[in-house]
Amino acid sequence: MTDELKKAYERKIFDVEKLKVTIGGFGRENKVILCHGVFDIVHPGHIRHLAYAKSKADILIVSITCDNWVDKGAYRPHVPQNLRALSLAALDMVDYVIIDDNEKPLENLYKLQPDYFAKGFEYSGQLPEATEEEMLVVNNYGGSLVFTPGDVVYSSSKLINTHAPSLMDAKLSLMMAHFDLTFDKIRSIIDRFEGIKVHVVGDAIIDSYTRTNLIGGGLKTPTFSVSFESKDNYVGGAGVVAKHMKAAGADVMLTTLLGEDDLGEFAIADLGNSGIILNNIAEEARPTTNKNVIIADGYRLLKVDTLDNAPLRPETLKIFIEKISQSKTDCVVFSDFRHGIFNKKTIKLMSDAIPSDTLKVADSQVASRWGNITEFFGFDLITPNEREARFSMGDQEANIARLISKLKDTTQSNNVILKLGEKGMFLLCDDSYYSIDSFAGTVKDAVGAGDALLAYSTLALKISDCLPSASLIGSIAAACECEYDGNIPISPDQILTKIDKIENAFRG
User: What is the pLDDT at residue 118?
Assistant: First the structure.
């Protein structure tokens, strides 16, 4: 349906320079009125405002604030700018729609010089400072400020906070239509993963799940008593990123640190059985990084970490750099968990060692430790989560659109996927913002979802050179991972099955 709307009404969405020529200059025969706002959820108040404005002029232009400058909360706007513009263009009373890339409408007011600039009645009386600025621009070229009448003020924010409508299908449909994507094209990308050469560099981790039954608690101390049931170990961190990519059909090399201990031997055997070429660079007395989750009656009771986050020794760092510089691969993936391999100094040295014409990808999953995604400078793709991005940018207040813009500019990355957990992901492409909601069904274990996304979005970006395609495939891989207990590699068949379900839901 969104694709049909796009075809029918996209003709009414203009850039400001083209619209300026179309409507002519001030003193034109056909009177023009401009309404400006966010229009996140178009409600009865908006309709009355627009209808009154249309009654005062021949041509009604609606200007919407771009996603970057919507300042109503971290996850606002709820409706992305392209979909907001399309929704307004579908109204018969609206003649033209523009997306204003500026924080304020002043520049476009000056360029278009509408005969009237319409404001809601709530702005009348004692004018806010922003309205006074707008009135000054309008008065300077000879236009008039018009206040639309009304006795009820509707709030998009209140409507969204009360019950935010699901826009999953509409947002995905609009993005796919804009980039001429189909589900068959997505499938064809996945079919071409076979034989891509990948070098994964980073912190291998053994994720342990110790399952117990709760017996009781101590009477004198706050001590839980549990009985042991079972323990399962999984190769995680950079190791499972490599396993995902191998399962996808790529030829994979992994350079990492594993201790000379039982868990290290377990990882070496497991990675070998998966067909991964392993460069294990052990350091004396450094243990294999282990994160052991104690589960009692299905609930996570405690996590016990065994690790050494000391920086690499100089001789070890030298070996890492040699392995990176000598590898002849299509992609290099840095998987950073800040357990000794990566820091500000080593990232620069290792990045410089990556051969030219190699797709460079980095992910920094630092959890509660010190790390900074901005240290991965000039990469083709970075995939931080929101918390990591806010930490690295020192910005807890910007909305998601502004946050990803700042991160992309700061890191000079070609592509950024911002992971939002259960909210899905956010991406910036061709100066427009797109969000993809999570496709996860029943979530059994979200640990490892970011690893699956990193692996599959990297391969898809290498094949397609299309961030929306890579993001969509990565998001579906992450959803598949969430539906399994334990950090296990996801296969293309699992992703293709999920794609079939998504496509059927679209058709339904």
Answer: 92
Task: For residue range 32-47, list pLDDT tens digits in order.
Answer: 999 999 998 887 788 8
HSE-CB for 174 with a 13 A CA cutoff: 24
Question: Using CA atoms, how far apart are residues 332 and 320, in angstroms rounded to an integer?
Answer: 13
What global pTM score does this model have? 0.82
Q: What is the DSSP letter of 360?
A: E
Query: Does residue 191 sit in the same domain as residue 304?
Result: yes
Contact between 241 and 457 (Cβ < 8 Å): no
* Shared-domain flag, residues 89 and 206: no
Q: How far apart are CA 388 and CA 501, in angstroms?
A: 32
Domain's final residue, options 113, 138, 165: 165
pLDDT at 220: 73
The helix (run of H) or strand (run of E) holding residue 426 is strand 425-429
**Residues 210, 153 share a domain:** no
What CATH number has the domain bearing residue 393? Answer: 3.40.1190.20
Range of the domain at 286: 183-507
Which ranges of 142-182 would DSSP assign to H, the alpha helix? 156-162, 168-178
- Where the chain has pLDDT below 70, the residues are 1-5, 122-126, 150-166, 218-219, 366-370, 508
CA separation (Å) from 236 to 271, 306, 386, 471?
11, 14, 21, 22
pLDDT of residue 218: 66
DSSP-derived letter for residue 92 is T
Residue 232: its H or E element: strand 224-237
* DSSP character at residue 363: E
Please tell me the predicted confidence (pLDDT) of residue 160. 54
Question: What is the reported pLDDT for 152?
Answer: 47
Ordered alpha helix ranges (H), 179-255: 183-190, 238-247
